[in-house]
Amino acid sequence: MSVYKYKKYKISLQSDSKKTQGLRTGDIVRRQYFDGKNLIYSLMCVLDYGIDNTVDPNTNDIVEKQYFIGALLEGDVPKTEEILDFARITNLFDINRSGAIYLTGSDDNAPYMDVIDGIGRNESLCWPLNIATPDYEDSESQYIVRGTEAVTTDYILSEADNNRICHFKRNDAIYYGFIGLQQDFYKYVQNPNRVLISYKIKANKAVNCKVSLEYQDGTRTDGEETTSITTDWQYKLHTITVDYSGRYLRTVKLDLSEMSPSDEVWVSDFNIILLSSVANFGDASKIRVGKLNGITDPVFGQLEGYGGYLQKLFASKSAHISGTLTAGDENGFAATFYAGKIHRNVFVNSLDVNFTSAITIDTQIENPTGIGNVYSASKIISMIAQSEEWFAQHIGKKYTFSFWIYAGQACQLSILQNDKAIGTVQIPIADTNIWSRKKVTFELQAPKQAEEALVLSIVPTFDTSDNAGESIFYFSSPQLEAGELVTQYQPTDTILNYTEDYGAWFNRGGIGGTIQNPLLQLNFDGEGSIGTRSNSVLIKTDGSGHFANKNIKWNKNGDVTFGKNVTMTWDNLDQSVKDELVSKSIRIVGTDTFTLLGDLTGADPVTNPADITLTLEEENLQSTSSQRQWYYLQGYDYIPFEGENGKTLTIWPFEPYWDNGNSLTVRCIVKFSDEEYSATFTIRKQYIVGYSLEITSSQGVSYKNNSCQTVLTANVYYQGKLVDPDYVAKNYIFKWTRYHLPDMENEVTDWWKEQRDNEGNIVQQEIDRSKQSITLNYGISGQDCFMCELLNGNMFPYEFPLIF
Fold it and tell me: The domain containing residue 665 runs over which residues?
């Protein structure tokens, strides 16, 4: 068992000390200093406090010594000769004692000053405020009572110094099951962490209570301890180390099954918290001045360098900002107010990412930034971050790639840039099932081949050792920015403004006039409409609006009405408008035939080509992955290819989508600007079994010596039928050879080359031996034998000769 038997120490003030012992029960206190050789550190929980009356050995007078009794949770044992100044960090149940100012020069990443608050409550795994009803059992904020057949319970808000009280009263019913509290965790915990269980308890008579930390399904118990309950309120603190796997949710049980009829028990100020939460309080810093390393912000992630970190800022009279001013909520949504460099995020279209791999758009998961798509995947995802031209101009420069990730299982994410590893991101089990922002800083590396776009990939490696959690992750809101620092997320679409200028952008409000009555009103109706104070210009989100005092009007259907004074010609139109007016279309291009070469033995045929890649060509539009989908025809229905939404589609000759047929119809649909464009393409199989060759001569086979004029043709027959010469010329290669009889062992060399007579006249043109027909015009002596081989060319992976 992993019950941690902490040691208790009594820390007293000297009677002549001018200090006051201000610590109270439940305080988490800390001391830390450097004695010249070692760093002395102790973390304790105050279990009790009081005043001792002792005799002063010098005066024999009775003097008072204030003290507190502390449980040593970690660190060095306090000794008499050491400095015993303890600072309160938080309290495990009293929210009025949860804050402190912490100034250090000896901690990691020192020096800094922190204002910390709310650790005991904000980091709690269970802080029940009432008794759960059958319809609402939430152990994080409710007391979950088990064995209600044997006990009645009620909730008391406060009594004296005790708060959040759960009252048990045993009835006369015979019951042999579990009676007590079962408080489930909402997050995973793992070794070597310890769980602190803090509460106050009393009974109407002495009774024992068993406290345990175990799996929620009850299959394993990390630790179990029995404590006695008296008739007076007592403070209890149990520390149990997580012993087993961190991949299973835990529960804490207070077993009161020893209660007899009419017994009563009161439990108050219940809290479950991790030791690491009270020992490492960086996440509880509300204000830090100094070195910011160690602070984790929900928007910017891990902070670095020196500066000031404030969760709220109120400035009177003068406020001066140098750099960027961004207004966003705690989730990282930056699209509310922005003043700074206009071109910050260089990732093209972070709202609708152009993936080159198969992904799924998940509409059920809420985006942590409040804008853009959420994508889910279980294996590598690759995305086009920037164009070829931009990439070529920025090779060697340092950039930071950041993104929001939600993993269902502990994993390591390998980050690749054009298939080159540039960093890794670790997601431990404690960070699973929550959104977090991750980053990798790297120098842009030249691609393997020139004229490649900038492609960023994320390759997950899931830890499936305990088979807990789902091997899937959700991805959203990528940002690529120059330098090493991560700034608040700046959403981008298909158009990036590459200016280095500074400017301002805001989501709602107005420009000019007064704050409450601006000249130009932005989102004045809460639905995104833009208009002027005089209503001479109005643009509504449903598509309707007007210009020039309603001389140009249009409705939500796009029907435009011009006043009599409006003149419009083609030259008046902007180029972007002209582009919108031109027709848009898509088409599919690629090879349309599989040729299958086989025989009559039943062996698997060899195909040419081995596969066919279809390419989608777009006219006057540029779609993204989320706008495309490929389908295949089966019967009368088009069935989607799972995960195929790229610009190319590879078809294999023997996949199930052929449905044992020799024809496959493929369709691609693109949804672009509220319009749908489609194109179809049909691929066929043709089988080739049984070939023969026949060589014919246009002028016979006998000639006088020194004379030969004829055309030899190698006719190709398939199963006795002549194959179309045009098809043969397109798909096959021939090889002609010549022998001088009776020697059939040695081929005549260079016979196909140009030949001249003694006077230099050409008597034989050079012959192309790869053609189906050759023309002969040469002096013959004796007998010549011509043979022809039908070769595969680029068609088959093996030769297929027939020699005559």
Answer: 585-688
